[in-house]
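Sample pair:
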Amino acid sequence: MTTPDDGRFSPNAATRAKAALKRDPWDLPDVSGLVVGVLGGTGDQGRGLAYRLARAGQKVIIGSRAAERAETAAGELGLGIEGAENAVCARRSDVVIVAVPWEGHAKTLEALREELAGKLVIDCVNPLGFDKKGAYALKPEEGSAAEQAAVLLPESRVTAAFHHLSAVLLQDPETERIDTDVMVLGESRADTDLVQALAARIPGMRGVFAGRLRNAHQVESLVANLISVNRRYKAHAGLRLTDV
């Protein structure tokens, strides 16, 4: 039974909730001073995100299971990007993007639970399978990669974003703008606002709140459709949300 002292129904909580609803959804925080770590930063998606954020002026650290691999990748990308072993990367970062292969997702996060405690974690992993018909979505026991991350990292603030970006465009130095929307999911508005603000640092990109983590499965799964689009039309398709 809810008591009058229950914080969820206190006058202060009600006032804050009303204020949040009235806020301009595009009034986003300044994230320029945050250090962003990228686990899986030696892979195509991780390298691309690291490159774009660093190019926008963000301090970026690439993480890998092997420090030497991370350092080599960081040196190739330049822009002040640093490389480190995954645990060091996680400890030194304010925000950590998880861009590891799906097959290593759970194992990587389990090993970094302590280092990621208290951190804002952005999961961009897409659980996919491939056969002769092409790509298809997998559904983890927890519901999605992001929900699996939330289970494995109970002391972290887990969000989901950056699923639908072309690694080719992200890594192409000739591409000045990436005109696409980034669907951002999470449990806390403060956290999803931070992720939206990070996305907005990249020219042409816009972060849009798309629901709580329970809605992450269909967002992750949509990548299978984009792969089919790109193969048919020899493109690097992304997403644009209309009337927002």
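Strands lie at 35-39, 59-64, 82-85, 95-98, 120-123, 128-131, 134-137, 157-160, 180-186, 205-209.
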